[in-house]
Amino acid sequence: MRLFVGDDWAEDHHDVEVMDGSGRRLAKARLPEGVAGMARLHAIVGELAGDEADEVEVLVGIETDRGPWVAALVAAGYRVLAVNPLQASRFRDRLGVSGAKSDAGDAHVLADMVRTHAHELRAVAGDSAQAEAVKVVARTHKTLIWERTRHTQRLRHALRDYFPAALEAFEDLDAVDALELLAKAPTPVQAARLTIGQISAALKRARRKNVAGKAAAIQAALRAEHLGQPEVVAAAYAASVQALIAVLEVLNTQVKTLQGQVEAHFGEHPAAKIVLSQPGLGPVLGARVLAEFGDDPQRYATAKARKNYAGTSPITRASGKKKIALARFVHNDRLIDALLTQAFSALRLSPGARAYYDRQRARGAGHNAALRQLANRFVGILHGCLKTGTLYDEATAWSHHAESVAA
Fold this sequence. Notes:
By secondary structure, the chain is α/β, with parallel strands linked by helices. The chain contains 18 helices and 8 strands.
């Protein structure tokens, strides 16, 4: 006997529907988040299973693959299938074209999906606690970096509007020395009064090289003539800029602190040595790759499955005599970002990677397309290394491609 459960999750509740193999609704309920809701779900399943509880298989469709609720479902022995929200939306259109939507209706859609398409849905990965820990710190670290970039852009836009000289004086606005000097002198008038000694001191604290030359260049840029704003407007901008600087200083500190946590957790994982043996992957980037792929040995049956999840493999569209290969634009943004960064770094570290990239460019592929194909190749190499428990070997990794070129 099989029971199919659709679980539509909201912030503080879960709408669930249970149906049998024929699609007949057996139960529906709105459950609170937490222990009480989980206990109620177990009770519903228990009532429907009756005396055959040990022989019942429960399949749960839910639009997330993480969190304590999902962990509790897996711990209860249910088969939990993570449904992509885009998949659910398109499946909903098959059941009705009016555009109507409700939490209860979504629970019905999810239950029907796992009833009819369970073989095509991805089960929630059984990652280890170590991999989950790496994912938590690696994702937070990357999120803080993205936030720092956003706040730096806000700072850049503000300076452009009232203090363009600062943009010429400082190459990296989120650097320690730039933030220190802008905090000390946030208006054009104040910045023009900065002495060589004050600028040099900030550069030394940031461990810059060629302090004398850089200090003179910064002072000259700050004292150059530029268009500006009235004094009262400049003061208002300065107050805003100082707030942004305070946020950036905190972000810089926390990014550095969390990087240590990422390296520590990643270093304790059994697969860390294999991941680090791949060209272009250091402790931080390697941690991101491991975190996003997970470490469930059964999750990716083949290298192709791992490439598809990574979003590096192309998709084919064929109709009649027309057939084209396109890049995947629906993917894990964090993972594809890490893989493309690895591929770019590997161009100077791996002769095989460089040759492979150059061949793609010679065939007419653009930089991004060639880089994505290289990343796709590296995913396949990583898959093989993890499956066999072996470290990366340059000759073995590119032997097939070297033979094909020689032929």
